[in-house]
Recover the amino acids of this structure.
């Protein structure tokens, strides 16, 4: 398996534009997490899914952020409209079972100018 | 307040030396504690996962310990190598039934010099 695949690796966009980050989980993993990492705040859990169903989105900062998982092999995190303070590295991670090891993707570095 | 605090914030050691990173947490209830290694520009990689009933767990040259009574964990790195240079993140899972809420420490940045 190629691991968790995220795209794009880097994204630079202007303030106000819509940004869509993508994640392909490891096959067979039933949990999918979206995280945001900044120097100031470290890693923060935004939302996670179990069997494609959103379980906890309390970490989503505001209504501008939304996440979907239409099937077991694909998830998106969308920011609309984007703001400079959204600049961060966004990670997707997946598990097989909640208590097991989490596998992280390479991350998407988002810069909003 | 549920918090995870790591120390030191950064550390520089010489290749071949041992080191110990600390993690104190106030998370309750707690289901498991994880240590991750994150290389610059990459995603975190799991090193160990321990439940409250486990005192120690090893992964090669990495050994994690857990004292659930004092709510402290440590990560010991033996015979350090240049490739150990990375950030090490302590993560505590909140809840008694693996709810998925993870509390992250700010990490310890380790630099191993030749």
């Amino acid at each position: 398996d190629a691991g968790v695949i995220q795209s794009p690796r880097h994204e630079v966009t202007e303030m106000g534009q819509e940004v869509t980050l993508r994640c392909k989980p490891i096959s067979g993993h039933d949990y999918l997490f979206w995280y945001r990492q900044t120097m100031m705040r470290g890693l923060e859990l935004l939302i996670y899914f179990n069997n494609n169903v959103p379980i906890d989105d309390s970490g989503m900062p505001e209504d501008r952020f939304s996440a979907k998982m239409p099937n077991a092999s694909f998830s998106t995190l969308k920011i609309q409209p984007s703001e400079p303070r959204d600049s961060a590295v966004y990670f997707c991670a997946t598990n097989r079972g909640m208590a097991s090891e989490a596998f992280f993707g390479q991350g998407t570095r988002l810069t909003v100018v | 307040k549920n918090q995870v605090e790591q120390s030191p914030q950064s550390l520089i050691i010489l290749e071949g030396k041992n080191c110990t990173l600390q993690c104190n947490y106030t998370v309750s209830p707690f289901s498991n504690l994880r240590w991750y290694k994150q290389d610059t520009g990459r995603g975190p990689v799991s090193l160990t996962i321990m439940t409250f009933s486990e005192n120690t767990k090893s992964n090669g040259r990495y050994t994690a310990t857990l004292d659930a009574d004092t709510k402290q964990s440590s990560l010991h790195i033996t015979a350090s190598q240049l490739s150990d240079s990375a950030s090490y993140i302590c993560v505590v899972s909140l809840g008694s039934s693996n709810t998925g809420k993870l509390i992250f420490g700010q990490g310890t940045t380790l630099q191993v010099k030749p």
Observations:
- Residues 73 and 102 of chain A are 16 Å apart (CA to CA).
- The two ends of chain A are 36 Å apart (CA to CA).
